Amino acid sequence: MIRRTRRHRLVLLATALLVAGTAGAAATALRLEHGRTVPEPATAATSSGRRLAVSTPVAPSGLPAGSRTGTDSPLAQVGTPAASQQRTFAPTYVILGRGGDRAPVRAVDTTAAGQLGLPTGAGQVGWWRGGALAGETYGSVVIAGHIDTTTGGLGFFVRLLRARTGDLVTLTDGHLNQDYRITSVRDIPKTSLATSTDTFSQSVAGRLVMITCTGRFDRRTGHYDHNRIVVATPLHP
Protein backbone atom coordinates (compact mmCIF):
# COMPACT_ATOMS: atom_id res chain seq x y z
CA MET A 1 0.00 0.00 0.00
CA ILE A 2 1.29 3.46 -0.93
CA ARG A 3 1.32 5.85 1.95
CA ARG A 4 -0.24 9.14 0.88
CA THR A 5 1.07 12.21 2.60
CA ARG A 6 -0.95 15.40 3.08
CA ARG A 7 0.84 16.91 0.07
CA HIS A 8 -0.12 13.92 -2.10
CA ARG A 9 -3.76 14.18 -1.06
CA LEU A 10 -3.87 17.87 -1.98
CA VAL A 11 -2.36 17.18 -5.39
CA LEU A 12 -4.95 14.45 -6.03
CA LEU A 13 -7.71 16.80 -4.90
CA ALA A 14 -6.53 19.46 -7.33
CA THR A 15 -6.49 16.92 -10.17
CA ALA A 16 -9.99 15.70 -9.30
CA LEU A 17 -11.36 19.22 -9.29
CA LEU A 18 -9.94 19.92 -12.74
CA VAL A 19 -11.33 16.67 -14.16
CA ALA A 20 -14.77 17.29 -12.61
CA GLY A 21 -15.16 20.74 -14.22
CA THR A 22 -17.95 20.90 -16.84
CA ALA A 23 -17.71 22.60 -20.24
CA GLY A 24 -19.99 25.42 -19.19
CA ALA A 25 -18.51 26.29 -15.80
CA ALA A 26 -15.24 27.78 -14.57
CA ALA A 27 -12.82 25.36 -12.89
CA THR A 28 -10.53 26.29 -10.01
CA ALA A 29 -7.11 24.61 -9.72
CA LEU A 30 -5.03 24.40 -6.61
CA ARG A 31 -1.27 24.56 -6.31
CA LEU A 32 1.08 24.12 -3.41
CA GLU A 33 3.15 26.94 -2.07
CA HIS A 34 5.25 26.60 1.07
CA GLY A 35 3.14 23.68 2.25
CA ARG A 36 -0.27 25.36 1.76
CA THR A 37 -2.83 25.52 -1.04
CA VAL A 38 -3.52 28.70 -2.99
CA PRO A 39 -5.85 29.15 -5.97
CA GLU A 40 -4.57 29.23 -9.52
CA PRO A 41 -6.14 31.70 -12.00
CA ALA A 42 -9.59 30.45 -12.90
CA THR A 43 -10.45 29.30 -16.38
CA ALA A 44 -13.74 29.51 -18.21
CA ALA A 45 -15.04 27.49 -21.12
CA THR A 46 -16.09 29.22 -24.31
CA SER A 47 -18.73 28.01 -26.75
CA SER A 48 -15.94 26.59 -28.93
CA GLY A 49 -14.65 24.44 -26.10
CA ARG A 50 -11.47 26.48 -25.58
CA ARG A 51 -10.71 27.48 -22.03
CA LEU A 52 -9.76 31.09 -21.40
CA ALA A 53 -7.83 32.31 -18.40
CA VAL A 54 -9.75 34.58 -16.05
CA SER A 55 -7.34 37.00 -14.46
CA THR A 56 -7.21 37.43 -10.70
CA PRO A 57 -6.19 40.59 -8.81
CA VAL A 58 -2.47 41.15 -8.49
CA ALA A 59 -1.09 43.22 -5.63
CA PRO A 60 0.73 46.35 -6.86
CA SER A 61 4.48 46.37 -6.58
CA GLY A 62 6.46 48.90 -4.60
CA LEU A 63 4.16 49.04 -1.58
CA PRO A 64 5.83 50.26 1.61
CA ALA A 65 6.61 47.78 4.35
CA GLY A 66 3.59 46.76 6.38
CA SER A 67 1.12 47.61 3.60
CA ARG A 68 -1.98 45.44 3.66
CA THR A 69 -2.86 43.53 0.51
CA GLY A 70 -4.96 40.51 -0.35
CA THR A 71 -7.74 39.13 1.81
CA ASP A 72 -6.58 40.94 4.97
CA SER A 73 -7.10 44.38 3.42
CA PRO A 74 -9.73 46.61 5.06
CA LEU A 75 -13.01 47.17 3.26
CA ALA A 76 -13.13 50.19 0.96
CA GLN A 77 -14.96 53.18 2.36
CA VAL A 78 -17.78 54.91 0.47
CA GLY A 79 -16.95 58.55 -0.12
CA THR A 80 -18.64 61.59 -1.64
CA PRO A 81 -18.63 61.46 -5.46
CA ALA A 82 -16.26 63.88 -7.17
CA ALA A 83 -17.64 66.53 -9.49
CA SER A 84 -16.78 64.37 -12.50
CA GLN A 85 -18.92 61.57 -11.02
CA GLN A 86 -22.13 63.58 -10.67
CA ARG A 87 -25.17 62.06 -12.34
CA THR A 88 -26.09 63.69 -15.64
CA PHE A 89 -29.22 63.54 -17.76
CA ALA A 90 -30.95 64.86 -20.85
CA PRO A 91 -33.68 67.21 -19.61
CA THR A 92 -37.29 66.51 -20.50
CA TYR A 93 -38.86 69.44 -18.62
CA VAL A 94 -37.79 72.96 -17.70
CA ILE A 95 -39.39 74.73 -14.73
CA LEU A 96 -39.14 78.50 -14.32
CA GLY A 97 -39.19 79.59 -10.71
CA ARG A 98 -39.49 77.32 -7.70
CA GLY A 99 -42.62 75.28 -8.36
CA GLY A 100 -43.44 77.55 -11.29
CA ASP A 101 -44.43 77.12 -14.91
CA ARG A 102 -43.04 74.14 -16.78
CA ALA A 103 -42.64 73.13 -20.41
CA PRO A 104 -41.65 69.88 -22.11
CA VAL A 105 -38.12 69.79 -23.55
CA ARG A 106 -37.41 68.07 -26.86
CA ALA A 107 -33.93 67.17 -28.14
CA VAL A 108 -33.03 69.24 -31.23
CA ASP A 109 -30.05 69.66 -33.52
CA THR A 110 -28.72 72.22 -35.95
CA THR A 111 -30.24 72.43 -39.41
CA ALA A 112 -28.38 72.16 -42.72
CA ALA A 113 -28.18 75.96 -42.71
CA GLY A 114 -26.42 75.90 -39.33
CA GLN A 115 -29.42 77.20 -37.39
CA LEU A 116 -30.67 75.63 -34.19
CA GLY A 117 -33.86 73.73 -34.89
CA LEU A 118 -36.78 74.25 -32.52
CA PRO A 119 -39.95 72.26 -31.76
CA THR A 120 -42.90 73.53 -33.75
CA GLY A 121 -45.18 73.81 -30.73
CA ALA A 122 -45.17 77.18 -28.99
CA GLY A 123 -45.42 75.50 -25.60
CA GLN A 124 -42.32 73.33 -26.12
CA VAL A 125 -38.63 74.19 -25.98
CA GLY A 126 -35.60 72.48 -27.48
CA TRP A 127 -32.46 71.14 -25.81
CA TRP A 128 -29.44 71.23 -28.15
CA ARG A 129 -28.14 67.66 -28.24
CA GLY A 130 -24.69 68.91 -29.29
CA GLY A 131 -24.29 70.68 -25.94
CA ALA A 132 -23.83 69.53 -22.38
CA LEU A 133 -26.14 67.33 -20.35
CA ALA A 134 -27.72 68.72 -17.21
CA GLY A 135 -25.37 68.13 -14.29
CA GLU A 136 -22.17 67.97 -16.32
CA THR A 137 -19.13 69.68 -14.82
CA TYR A 138 -18.23 71.51 -18.03
CA GLY A 139 -20.16 72.88 -20.97
CA SER A 140 -23.30 74.84 -21.76
CA VAL A 141 -26.71 73.19 -21.50
CA VAL A 142 -28.43 75.10 -24.30
CA ILE A 143 -32.23 75.32 -24.34
CA ALA A 144 -34.07 77.49 -26.85
CA GLY A 145 -37.73 78.25 -27.46
CA HIS A 146 -40.10 80.53 -29.31
CA ILE A 147 -41.30 83.83 -27.93
CA ASP A 148 -44.38 83.35 -30.12
CA THR A 149 -45.51 81.64 -33.32
CA THR A 150 -47.93 82.60 -36.08
CA THR A 151 -50.10 79.57 -35.38
CA GLY A 152 -49.63 78.87 -31.68
CA GLY A 153 -49.64 82.32 -30.12
CA LEU A 154 -47.26 83.17 -27.29
CA GLY A 155 -44.45 80.72 -26.71
CA PHE A 156 -43.33 79.36 -23.35
CA PHE A 157 -40.10 81.33 -23.39
CA VAL A 158 -41.96 84.64 -23.59
CA ARG A 159 -41.46 84.36 -19.81
CA LEU A 160 -37.76 85.04 -20.32
CA LEU A 161 -38.68 88.65 -21.08
CA ARG A 162 -39.44 88.92 -17.35
CA ALA A 163 -36.39 86.93 -16.19
CA ARG A 164 -34.21 88.56 -13.54
CA THR A 165 -30.89 87.67 -11.97
CA GLY A 166 -31.43 85.52 -8.91
CA ASP A 167 -34.46 83.70 -10.37
CA LEU A 168 -34.45 79.92 -10.10
CA VAL A 169 -34.69 77.43 -12.97
CA THR A 170 -34.95 73.65 -12.71
CA LEU A 171 -34.23 70.99 -15.30
CA THR A 172 -35.57 67.48 -14.77
CA ASP A 173 -35.96 64.18 -16.58
CA GLY A 174 -38.69 62.98 -14.23
CA HIS A 175 -36.16 61.25 -11.95
CA LEU A 176 -33.20 63.59 -11.55
CA ASN A 177 -33.33 67.35 -10.99
CA GLN A 178 -30.75 70.09 -11.45
CA ASP A 179 -31.43 73.57 -10.05
CA TYR A 180 -29.89 76.74 -11.45
CA ARG A 181 -29.84 80.40 -10.46
CA ILE A 182 -29.94 83.07 -13.17
CA THR A 183 -26.76 85.16 -13.21
CA SER A 184 -27.12 87.26 -16.38
CA VAL A 185 -29.79 88.47 -18.81
CA ARG A 186 -28.81 90.24 -22.04
CA ASP A 187 -30.05 90.95 -25.55
CA ILE A 188 -27.74 90.63 -28.56
CA PRO A 189 -28.22 90.95 -32.33
CA LYS A 190 -29.08 87.65 -33.95
CA THR A 191 -26.17 88.06 -36.35
CA SER A 192 -23.78 87.97 -33.38
CA LEU A 193 -25.21 84.97 -31.58
CA ALA A 194 -22.93 82.27 -32.99
CA THR A 195 -19.92 84.37 -33.99
CA SER A 196 -19.38 86.94 -31.25
CA THR A 197 -20.52 85.20 -28.06
CA ASP A 198 -19.66 82.08 -26.07
CA THR A 199 -23.32 81.04 -25.93
CA PHE A 200 -22.62 77.55 -27.26
CA SER A 201 -19.22 77.08 -25.61
CA GLN A 202 -18.48 73.65 -24.17
CA SER A 203 -15.20 74.64 -22.51
CA VAL A 204 -16.78 76.76 -19.77
CA ALA A 205 -17.81 75.58 -16.31
CA GLY A 206 -21.18 73.83 -16.32
CA ARG A 207 -24.08 76.20 -16.83
CA LEU A 208 -27.52 76.60 -18.38
CA VAL A 209 -28.09 78.93 -21.35
CA MET A 210 -31.66 79.73 -22.40
CA ILE A 211 -32.37 81.50 -25.69
CA THR A 212 -35.42 83.14 -27.20
CA CYS A 213 -36.20 85.98 -29.60
CA THR A 214 -36.73 89.64 -28.78
CA GLY A 215 -36.30 93.07 -30.30
CA ARG A 216 -37.93 94.37 -33.45
CA PHE A 217 -40.09 92.02 -35.48
CA ASP A 218 -39.53 92.12 -39.24
CA ARG A 219 -42.83 91.24 -40.94
CA ARG A 220 -41.08 90.75 -44.25
CA THR A 221 -38.78 88.00 -42.95
CA GLY A 222 -41.01 86.86 -40.09
CA HIS A 223 -38.14 87.10 -37.58
CA TYR A 224 -37.06 89.21 -34.64
CA ASP A 225 -33.70 90.95 -34.90
CA HIS A 226 -32.34 90.11 -31.42
CA ASN A 227 -31.97 87.15 -29.13
CA ARG A 228 -32.41 87.18 -25.39
CA ILE A 229 -29.69 85.14 -23.66
CA VAL A 230 -30.34 84.05 -20.07
CA VAL A 231 -27.43 82.34 -18.30
CA ALA A 232 -27.81 80.40 -15.04
CA THR A 233 -25.26 78.61 -12.88
CA PRO A 234 -25.94 75.26 -11.20
CA LEU A 235 -26.82 74.99 -7.52
CA HIS A 236 -25.25 72.04 -5.73
CA PRO A 237 -26.78 70.37 -2.67
Characterise the protein shown here:
This protein has 237 residues and is mostly beta strands. It folds into two domains: 1-54, no CATH class; 86-235, Sortase, Chain: A. Helices cover 6% and strands 36% of the residues. It has one helix spanning 6-20; strands at residues 30-33, 36-39, 42-45, 51-54, 93-96, 101-108, 125-128, 140-145, 148-149, 153-154, 168-172, 177-189, 207-218, 223-235. It has an eight-stranded mixed β-barrel. It has a two-stranded antiparallel ribbon with strand order 1-2. The radius of gyration is 31 Å and the shape is globular. The N and C termini lie far apart (75 Å). Residues 1-79 have low confidence and may be disordered.
Summary tags:
237 residues; Sortase, Chain: A; 2 domains; eight-stranded mixed beta barrel; 1 helix; globular; disordered N terminus
